[in-house]
């Protein structure tokens, strides 16, 4: 099948051709006709299979069939995403595919100044791509109304639930017109997704083009059993000895991302960190440097597991295994996209063996182990129970009058240990705050 057979307008077909595409992916071939018919859609597909174009193209076509409303145009399409990175990716797709059409789109997300977004909305926008928190901020300040929304898309719905956005989603649903077309896209399925779909969708077409919660066949997966204290050394060796030019490395914490970045730089590897404590400008620069080849290793927390769209990314490394097994699928889905081959390597010590067991249960198969890593031999026992949490050290007793004014009437200087505020409401609403991601 060709894109020309899907019933899209000439302007959209021209834009698709300019992007270098001729043949739709399976999710696009099934979703686009259903959306054009006005059906609600529940779609599941592996990450990297073209879900974004699967809903962007038909929605642009449907808008094209309508009369253009007077200025300032009210938004008629709302696309809700869980992260800033994914918001920008979807917004870019809308702009690329709609470049020959007279529509305006706006990206709404936290972590940046709200004023430019307010100004754009005041000029009018046909399509809104947004994260939940900033969207509600603008609504509560009367800068945005959802009263004219005709098409509602919930993208990466499973990630939405993982990040604790269900309360915000329910608030937004109450503000939408009852008569609308709904599309729910998700890379993985969980029972909660089915419950959410029942609340949102009306007699939907259900589309699933791949095994649920499975990794793409184009990704070669390997486990390197290694002691935690030797992980960084092994990682540097793999990057250097195999001459890797571009590798995305996932760690569990922001502090761990910064620490590993400094260590790899000391090893002579051009590296950058990407996590929730970075400003939006710093995150964009790090990603641009990585895409352009100025940076070899991008060390990221799971905030980057969704929304990163990097052409021909060859290598993904799990320096730390994710706590949620399904996140493993999202992480390694950054490579092996659009039919390209990729490699996903996980460095696993015995304390993470229980996490590996959960991942292999989701995948329904064992990931191959590398027998000789060149480092101390580690035998992973996936049947071992989860290690007990180490007891926390008791804080030293607070000295008398600590934090109180001294005899001069002045307070002692701040120690600098006070936690930072979250960088945005969207991060805070993710259940852990900006620092937790």
Characterize the structure shown.
It is an enzyme of class 3 (hydrolase). It comes from Methylomonas paludis. The chain is of the alpha/beta class and 437 residues long. It folds into two domains: 3-208, Rossmann fold; 219-363, P-loop containing nucleotide triphosphate hydrolases (Rossmann fold, 3-Layer(aba) Sandwich). It has helices at residues 10-18, 26-36, 51-64, 84-97, 115-123, 132-140, 157-162, 166-175, 191-200, 231-241, 254-266, 280-292, 325-332, 353-363, 425-432; strands at 41-44, 77-80, 105-108, 127-130, 151-154, 181-186, 205-208, 219-225, 247-250, 271-274, 297-300, 315-318, 342-348. It has a seven-stranded parallel sheet, sandwiched between helices. It has a six-stranded parallel sheet with strand order 8-13-12-9-11-10, sandwiched between helices. Helix 2 (26-36) runs parallel beside helix 3 and helix 3 (51-64) crosses helix 4. The longest helix is centred in the first third of the chain and has 14 residues, at 51-64.
Number-wise, the strands total 13
SSE-based structural type: alpha/beta
Tell me, briefly, the overall form. globular
SSE topology string: HHEHEHEHEHEHHEHEEHEHEHEEHEHH
Rg is 23 Å
Query: What's the number of structural domains?
Result: 2
Helix content: 25-40%
Strand order of the largest sheet: 3-4-2-5-6-1-7
Uncertain segments of ≥5 residues (pLDDT<50)?
400-425, 427-437
Could you name the CATH class of the largest domain?
A: Alpha Beta
CATH superfamily of the largest domain: P-loop containing nucleotide triphosphate hydrolases
CATH architecture verdict of the largest domain: 3-Layer(aba) Sandwich
Q: Beta fraction of the residues?
A: 5-15%
Biggest sheet: strands, sense, closure? 7 strands, parallel
- By DSSP (H or I, 4+ residues per run), the number of helices equals 15
CATH topology of the largest domain: Rossmann fold
Give the terminus-to-terminus CA distance: 41 Å
